[in-house]
Structures are given as C-alpha cells and as structure tokens.
Amino acid sequence: MIRFKKRQLLKTTNNAKRKRKCTTEKTKDRRQRIIHKLMLINRVKPLLTTMNFLAVCCPRLTRNTRAKKYEAVCNTNDMGGATSSPRPSEKQTQLHFKARGPTYPQASEDVKKFAVPDTHVLWNVDYPEYQPLCYNSPRVVEKPVWADPDVSDEAFKAIKFNEIDGKTNRVSHMGKYELNKDGVPINIVGRTGMTGRGLLGKWGPNHAADPIVSRWKRDENKEIVIKDGKSVLEVVAIKRGDTKEWAIPGGMVDSGEHVSLTLKREFGEEALNSLETDEKETTRKAIDDLFHHGDTIYEGYVDDPRNTDNAWMETTAVNFHDEDNSTVGKIPLHAGDDAVAVQWLPINKQLNLFASHADFIEKTCAKHNAYFIK
Q1: Are 171 and 161 in contact (CB under 8 A)?
Q2: Which of 145-154 are b and which e, b meaning 16 or more Cβ less than 10 Å from the residue's Cβ?
Q3: For residues 210 and 255, what is the distance between their CA atoms, to the nearest angstrom?
Q4: Which helix (H) or strand (E) holds 320?
Q5: Across 147-250, where does the E strand assignment appear?
Q6: What residues are paired with 343 via a beta bridge?
Q7: Which of 47-56, 154-163, 357-366 is predicted least confidently?
Q8: Which of 201, 169, 221, 154 is nearest to 308 (CA)?
Q9: Mean pLDDT across the stretch 102-110?
Q10: What is the pLDDT of residue 349?
Q11: Cα–Cα dist 173/297, whole Å
C-alpha cells in the first residue's frame, strides 16, 4: 500500500513538472511569435498599426506598457539595433503614389526612378538595395533667382531649415522634417525613387497655393443640377500643358508673399487670360469681391510627380464659393488653346486630376454636401 502511494505521488509530481515545462515552452513560443509579428509589421505596415496589434495580442498589458513597446519597435530595426532612419511625422499617415511614378516629368527617357514598393516607402523600413538616381532639372542647374543653391555651393550652408528663413518659408505643414548627413532635407512622407530637386527650386518643402473657386452647376432654367439626390458643383480648372490633366489654377508662393495674395494672383491670371479685353475690368472687380473670404480645405503635403527624396510640394487649398453666381460665377470662362484651357469643370463624373487635386475637390464637395464620385 505504501509503495502504491509512493508511485502515485511520484507520478503526480512528474505530471506537474511536465505540465509546467509545457506551459513554459508555450509561453516562450507565444512570445517569439509576437516578436516575429512585430518585426514583420515594422517592415511592411505603417507604424500606427503596431499599437493596435499590441492591444489585440497583448490585452493584459497596460496602455503605458504597450506604448513603451511601440516606442521600442519604432526605434529599432529588425536586427535589434538602433536605426538612424527618420521616424514618420505624427501627421504623416498617408503614402504617396504619383511621386513614385516610373519616370520624371519633363525629363528625358533615360531618367528613370528607382522602384519603391508600397511596403518600402517609409524611411524606417530597411531597403539596402535602394540606389535612387540624383536628378536636377537643367532649369534648376542654371541657378535662377527662385532656386536654392546646390549642396556643393558654400551658400547652401547658410540655409535655415524648419524655420522662416528670411523671406522663404521652410516650415512644413506636416511637422519637423529630418536632414541627412549632408544637411539635406529628407522627404517627410518617404522614398520617391529619386534624389536631388528635380524641377523644384527649394530643398525641402516648396509651398504653393490652390484656389478652389466653385459655383453650382445650373441648367437652361437656371435651376441647380441634381445627381443622385445631391447638387452638382462646378470648379474653375485648367488643363495642364505637360500632363494634359485638369488641375486647380494654383501656383508657387513667392518669397515674402502671403498665401492669400498668391491665391488671388494665380486665379486672376488664369481667369483673365481666358477673357476678351472688354470683360477683364468687370471680372477683376468680381475676383476682388470674392477673395475677401474663403474656407481652408487643406494644408499639407501634395502627392506630386515632381517630388523627390529631398524636395517636395506642399500647399494651402482654399475654397471660394459663389453661392448664387453673383460674382465670379458670372465669368464666362471658356477653353483657350491646347496648352492651357480654362473652364468651369462640372464635378458630375470621375475625373483625372493632377497631383492631389482630386482630394481637394472631394473635400470641397463634402463641405457643400455636393455630388462626388471617386
């Protein structure tokens, strides 16, 4: 009887040990799987998803602990060492697509961009094969007054990035951007497949202003046109000579110029150029009346095909809406020559618009509860 009890006790003890060993191994395996998944997420998904993953996989962790683990993932690469790659801005939650096109606008056919897949856009993702071409347009190389000095120029060292540098605004709407080892700005969204400045004059952000001038589309009875239960907007648009895409008639903000003046100047130039001489004075007064007020639709990075790893477009898009066609809504815009056509463009179908302009139009339609289709 005693021997039997000893055997039972020994059996129970061994079973408990095996159970503890099994549980320990399962815990280790689970931890390894979590670490592996975190590494994968750090490589192929935006970092914002990491916090969500930790919340699901590690529900017992406190919010502060998850935040600390997230910070660790942000600051280490998949080999476990510290990375010098810039972290995404807090406002940077989108990827760019047009900025990663295979070719560069207005460049020769041999100017090709290095391919950048969606999974390798963010700078914190390792991409050892990345060897982009450095390209500067001949117009920029000629050193026009609107362009920054080249990196090799002594004057480059005097540029003050991330601040108002004399009359030049070098502050990004997206937050503070990083500089590489040569003191050159790094694209705040991610890789584009090309370094240098391309067609852009400034290192870092190149600021533009886009006036979205809108009115309601009306039929022959002057009634607002309805589609799918929503009113249809029309916006002033130009057809670009380079890409043949419709675009908002915006332009670059000159040094020392306020954005509102740029908006008025750019729209006025495009609108007045499309009119006959006797119509211009009346139109100029209508523009002055409308541009006393406007609603900011967007401020930030523009997914522009001219962007590079070191220079990019940012804009302030402002909507000026003529509710009853009493001011600029009366301007009889019409198409000009094939190089630049200016007209009231109805937003009643899917449109192929330049850069991020479709996003600006969508936001404008949402503001007025107007019809829009992606």
Answers
A1: no
A2: eebbeeeeee
A3: 16
A4: strand 311-322
A5: 164-165, 168-169, 194-198, 204-216, 226-227, 230-231, 233-239, 246-247
A6: 237
A7: 47-56
A8: 201
A9: 88
A10: 87
A11: 13
Position 60 pLDDT exceeds 50: no
> How much is the mean pLDDT over the chain?
76
Q: What tokens does 372 get? A: 């829009």
- Please report, as a single letter, which amino acid is at residue 25: E
Give the Å distances, CA to CA, from 218 to 14, 319, 324. 86, 19, 10
pLDDT digits 0-9 by tens, 334-365: 544 433 577 888 999 888 787 688 889 999 99
DSSP 58: -
Domains of the chain with bracketed CATH: 2-75 (no CATH), 208-367 (3.90.79.10)
- Is 172 in a helix, a strand, or coil? coil
pTM of this structure: 0.67
Residue with tokens 């910070």: 71
Phi/psi of residue 249, nearest 5 degrees = -75, 70
State residue 86's pLDDT score. 53
Query: Using an 8 Å Cβ cutoff, are 182 and 144 in contact?
Result: no
Instruction: Answer yes or no: are the C-beta atoms of 213 and 159 closer than 8 Å.
Output: no
* pLDDT digit string, tens, across residues 107-149: 888 899 999 999 999 999 999 999 999 999 999 999 999 999 9
